[in-house]
Amino acid sequence: MAKGEPVIVVRGLANSFGEQFVHQDLDLEVRRGEILGVVGGSGTGKSVLMRSIIGLQQPVAGEIEVFGEAITSMTAKEALNARRRSGVLFQGGALFSTLTVAENVEVPLREFYGHLGEGLLDEIAAYKVAMTGLPPEAGPKYPSELSGGMRKRAGLARALALDPELLFLDEPTAGLDPIGAANFDGLIKSLKETLGLTVFLITHDLDTLYAICDRIAVLADKQVVAIGTIPELLALDHPWIQEYFNGPRGRVAADAADRNARAQVQDKAG
Ligand SMILES: Nc1ncnc2c1ncn2[C@@H]1O[C@H](COP(=O)(O)OP(=O)(O)OP(=O)(O)O)[C@@H](O)[C@H]1O
């Protein structure tokens, strides 16, 4: 698959819980090699959308293709293969509290590559831990012994365990201080570039959108009401989009992004 081709295609998706429809006739395409930011007010169905795409939520209507295969009609073998090609960082990290960081990273490794033997599994886990910027001492620690930012990195190490092509992140910077959040953004961007990842990133963090997202999908009224770059979204007169990007926080984030871009140009020139 070439860069820019769709890796995820969602058509006519509907999800409901009893009488309550969260999505209706929702369409979305995620292109290979992009970081797609997914935004929307609380309860607009961002996490449910992610869960549908990774096969944890059974839609009531619509089609979802991942890597060109319809997920609803996949054989068990195809579903396993698709799962191997995707990594997920759930809100809060969702680490197993009774396992160390290294053991958490080894959970998916054991499932798919259990035959590799203890020594090699430990080495791969240590490599994944290092990849996310954690010190080696973090490997034998339990999640409760880590800071919130370190737990996110540990969750990311587990999401990267199987060398995925597609990474799902649900509010990765929530609860981090601004410096920790900016560092995490930088980590995601550099991993995306080094590993050639496609990233589906749910966030409320405007700084993240400006700093690392190639395009942004906006969820409202049970659908993706707009998708595009920030300038493309700003040109639309959708009230939520205008309020979100042009409200006080949106403006602060835009100014900060502007200052960063100017500083980078000066750094390069100097
Ligand atoms: N398992 C479930 N059972 C019943 N309702 C659910 C379930 N999961 C989600 N919902 C409902 O679906 C809607 C969308 O939830 P979702 O978690 O996807 O929102 P979100 O956009 O990710 O919100 P937030 O930004 O607050 O995390 C909400 O009204 C929620 O209550």
Question: What's this entry about, in short?
Answer:
The protein contains 10 helices and 10 strands. The chain has 270 residues and is of the alpha/beta class. Helix 7 (206-212) runs parallel beside helix 10 (248-269) and helix 9 (239-246) packs across helix 10 (248-269).
Structure commentary:
By secondary structure, this protein is of the alpha/beta class. It is 43% helix and 24% strand. It has 10 helices and 10 strands. It has helices spanning 46-53, 76-84, 101-113, 118-131, 148-159, 178-195, 206-212, 230-234, 239-246, 248-269; strands at 6-17, 20-31, 35-40, 61-66, 69-70, 86-89, 166-170, 198-202, 215-220, 223-228. The strands form 2 sheets. The chain has a 6-stranded mixed beta sheet, with helices on both faces. It has a 4-stranded antiparallel beta sheet with strand order 2-1-4-5, covered by helices on one side. A hairpin with a 2-residue loop joins strand 1 (6-17) and strand 2 (20-31). Helix 3 runs parallel beside helix 5. The longest helix has 22 residues, at 248-269. 36% of the residues are buried. The structure holds adenosine-5'-triphosphate. Residues 17, 22, 40, 42-48 line the site of adenosine-5'-triphosphate. Adenosine-5'-triphosphate (ATP) binds next to helix 1.
* Termini separation: 39 Å
Bound molecules: adenosine-5'-triphosphate
C-alpha-based Rg, rounded: 19 Å
Major sheet: order of its strands? 6-7-8-3-9-10
Q: The biggest beta sheet, please? A: 6 strands, mixed
How many individual helices? 10
Strand runs, count: 10
What is the residue-mean pLDDT, rounded to a whole number? 89
- List unreliable stretches of 5+ residues: none
Strand fraction equals 15-25%
Q: What is the element string, with H for helices and E for strands?
A: EEEHEEHEHHHEHEHEEHHH
Indicate the percent of residues in helices: 40-55%
The outline comes out as: globular
Class derived from helix and strand content? alpha/beta
Domain ABC transporter: 8-246
Keywords: ATP-binding, Nucleotide-binding, Transport
Pfam family, one: ABC_tran
Protein name: ABC transporter ATP-binding protein
